Amino acid sequence: MERDDTAVEVNVNFTSEEINNNIEIIEVKYQTTYTEDTHYLLIETKLKSSTWSLQGIPNSSARITVRATYLYGSRGGVRSGQFISEMGGELNYSRRSVKLTNGSVMIDGSMRGLHVGTYLFHKIVSWAKQFDPSFTVVPISVISGDADGENKDRRNKLYTNSGIRFIWEGAEGMGGQSDPTLKISELIPYANWPNITRNHGLSALDNIWRDFSTLKEKSRGLRASKRYYRREYETIRARLRAIAGFLNFPGYIFCILLGLAIGRALGWYQGF
Q1: What is the pLDDT of residue 201?
Q2: Is-above-0.90 flag for pTM?
């Protein structure tokens, strides 16, 4: 038997890898009957793409991650640094497909109904539109457990406004999967967020710094007040001790005289 020493050569050539990070601050307003609340969110967008060739056949992949973090607000209820949402997408060139989610499209309950989800999802769809229009969109699954109350309409509008059509299982609008034949060419970068503006001047950071400085001043004032009231407390306590001692002095004399009188009556003491 002869051994075949023929080597199989696999030619892999990595061409490039690019990572791009971008941050912005958005101002989100919520109008009620009596007040207007203002919130500031930090939006981080990370893009990563790689290109290579296998046996001379070009290939590529790309990803996008969009993350929202709460910065500052006119009213309480949400703490600074609180995670609000993270969405993502991925291109698979070899499969000629693109994903528009990273597993879930969720917004923290404190920010629901304020178009934050629309703002973030628009970035994902706009990113996907740069690729081959004939690529398919990986089906998106939704469950009936998320279709309660107003959340059902918000969720479905988020997708349908972006050109995503669903094949429902059971009752319409409850649970199902997006059409597996959907193409990138059919996606719509739906941009409608009347209550959201990009904070180009970064005034949110100025507000945060101003409030931080005010809190520092208040903190210093409270510490000074604490020291003042502690001194006053110690002074008042010392005075009360002195007064108590003075008031008790006649009692001490009376007790001594009473003890001597009892001792004399019992014959223990004959001094007076």
Answers
A1: 56
A2: no
